[in-house]
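Q: Predict the assembly, please.
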Amino acid sequence: MPWVNHQIVLASHADGLPRADNFVERTGEIQGCDAGHLVVRNHYLSVDPAQKGWMGTAQNYASARLGEPMRALAVGEVVESLAEGFREGDFVSGWFGWQEYAHVGPEAVQRILEPWCSPIRYALSVYGLNGLTAYIVLSDILLPAEGDTLLVSTAAGGVGSIVGQLASERGARVVGLTGSDDKVALCKSEYGYSAAINYKDADWLKQLAGACPDGIDKYFDMAGGWISDEVIALMNHFGIHAQVGTAAVASWDPVPQAPRRERVLLIKELTQKGFVIFNHQQRYAEAIAHLRDLLGEGKLNFREDIRDGLSAAPAALEELYQGLNRGKLLIRLVDETGKTTH
Amino acid sequence: MPWVNHQIVLASHADGLPRADNFVERTGEIQGCDAGHLVVRNHYLSVDPAQKGWMGTAQNYASARLGEPMRALAVGEVVESLAEGFREGDFVSGWFGWQEYAHVGPEAVQRILEPWCSPIRYALSVYGLNGLTAYIVLSDILLPAEGDTLLVSTAAGGVGSIVGQLASERGARVVGLTGSDDKVALCKSEYGYSAAINYKDADWLKQLAGACPDGIDKYFDMAGGWISDEVIALMNHFGIHAQVGTAAVASWDPVPQAPRRERVLLIKELTQKGFVIFNHQQRYAEAIAHLRDLLGEGKLNFREDIRDGLSAAPAALEELYQGLNRGKLLIRLVDETGKTTH
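A: Predicted assembly structure:
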């Protein structure tokens, strides 16, 4: 059967911060389900910092295409399937884009959601990019141990809020950098941080040095840029620096200039390591099992910032980079009664 | 007994390339050996790329002091000992500086040379910084394996010449960057390189891409700077980059600007790791055993560039940064007959 399909389409690349006007709304139609394909009705769309990289023209690990629905993860229900292994009524997560319906091949699906994955939107947050990134970077790169000081940039975000709790559970002293005083308070009251600092304060670096009297052993870095140029000076010998995001760099086209790091890397024998979650699928099961246990025991605090209606997506993405969200940003397309939200 | 002691003293810091006129010659006298100390007559002085870092005012892991003999490794003979564990006639390696005699405590000694360490100057090269650095960086950081493409910058130098042979022995395809056509030839004929490129050629980067058709998996980097800014673009996903030196950066004071690397580090999930040999002493025994086996079997080519007389040291250091040496640079102070060289 045909489906009327509202979409948010990428209209122009953004090499700086994404703006709502990089997108246009469009109404299309899916005539029917092709052989080997399935049609998914999206229930929640994910709004993620990584989308900035996908929208630009600079080299990246993935790109969104002009004139197509914005590249995004989503969860939804299979409404028709001509693909082996999928049945109508299955809930799935995957690369379904910013649209009401996705007509895709099986390769677009990340997984069929297990019954315990409830509410299903958790597949986009705790059991999705956020939780997986937090767990895998800590387990495979940073290895926080008793007595370590671990710094997290964008500490109150969807990933950082989980990192704080997982790292303090392992005995590290966790310090966070975030962009407002209320997020500083959240980090300390809910997310396991021993200390948190607003990097917009004029004396943030002095505050950071004070909060890390023994230096910084491990750095979970989603900011990069001018923030990390300063942080590196506080890192200890044999420190480990995971580069998980680059939120503090407004644009990569052209590649901006920065103080050379080879010397400090060498004399401190630092390890710097990049990380893209999508190349670590063999680690998902262990990560999800751990996060599920913590949630089940009520030991994991997690906030969501849910906006209603497809049209809310572009502004939500713009606000993400202004730090205006509080918790994981999601767009809800279908309410509890099954109706489309507006 | 008193010893007349010719010395080469650091007269001025060099934040750019060292020049012979950063040094002055001085004649001092050692009145006698203090309790707990020993007097070493230096036979060979080491001339090393790391000395540039010690001469500057920029932050480093060690510094040479103005008005004192230039910080340097050396090998020599104990001519008097009031220190436990050392006897007259022992040959020792250590931090004895650019001078004929060193009056030092036991902490300045690296080790008493074993009888197999012959000629004794090998303690400054194959069995010293050069061989140890080559072996330990390959074994602990780069882990070259069958089928890997491993790039080495300053490929024909004291370290690079050994890296080429050790890495090709492990089955890697080894490619070198060096600064002259005759060094390119040496890399290929003697040092185990499958290909080598003169980075002074206008089209060196195109040559490099051609020599690495499958990209670069591992990078043994003693250059850094503008050379590595280009090399990183050729590195493969999950590539490993060991920062062992920064010869291509003329000065670190002030820290120069460079293209930001966070994005390429992230999207390629590279590992960058700094290395300072002096923090890895627990690995020396294994490294030396391996190098001794190779030398004993005649399977390790190694060149030395030996200059006679203390006064030759400053110019030798200057020439090192001009790439004018062929092999490990050493200053010989005592000839086979035991006479002081001039």
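The first strand of chain B starts at residue 3 and ends at 10. Chain B has a mean pLDDT of 95.
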